[in-house]
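Standup notes
- DV: blocked on the single-chain target, sequence here:
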Amino acid sequence: MRNILNIILPLMAFMAVSGCTNNKIYYLVKRNISKEQRIDTIESLQDQNLFLFNIITQGALGDFENELAIARRINKDSTLIYSIQQSNNEGPRISDKYIAYVKLPGYQNWGWFYMKDGKLLDKLPGIDKITDSIKSRKSGRFSISQKNGYISYVDNNEKKVLDYGNVITNYKTKDFKNLEFKLYQLIGDELKVISSDGDDLFKQKEGLYFLPPPGYGVNRFFSKRELFEAVDSVSKLKSTPEQIEIKPVKD
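- DV (later): unblocked, structure below
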């Protein structure tokens, strides 16, 4: 009995997590994978036999559908799979901490942003000087791209990423993208929280801002750790549920 309570109580605590201000209910739904479908692994916790992956279904005309799912391998012959509910006209965005569903899945809607006169400008202050400096040090085959202050370049087959914030602030080694999900403004040499809503970026008039993943335009997002824990918990039950109710961090 004690072992069962050790499984059920963490699951109930997960399901009771608040932070959601409406009564919408979301579920992880148990499912199987057919021979016609394939999987694309995104992340694995090998020591816990937990996996995050896309279920890919090929369409008749060459198009395909992706379905995000979490699996717990029970043994070599058995794997428990739950897919994450998704609505139309949205797509997943996965970061180190969160699984989010956003309105513009094809865009990188997080990173560094520069507002002037209430408008979001295409170019960050000093970004050209930084990219020119990188180009001047190239040693072999070279390519470079930049999106919202994250500069990706390949120099002599070595891929590197430079964070604009590590160059223009005193935080030379900070991993900005793993900050708590808030809207930040760089004021002097300090990064200060100005809102807990990423969409408030577009209410700002002037300044340099940072928004970690999942960014703006978010319909809802879940703690990735809590979703893994929910699937792991039910995998220890004799009879696993068809659905697991989940609560978003934000909805």
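- Follow-up: Residues 4-22 have pLDDT under 50 and may be disordered.
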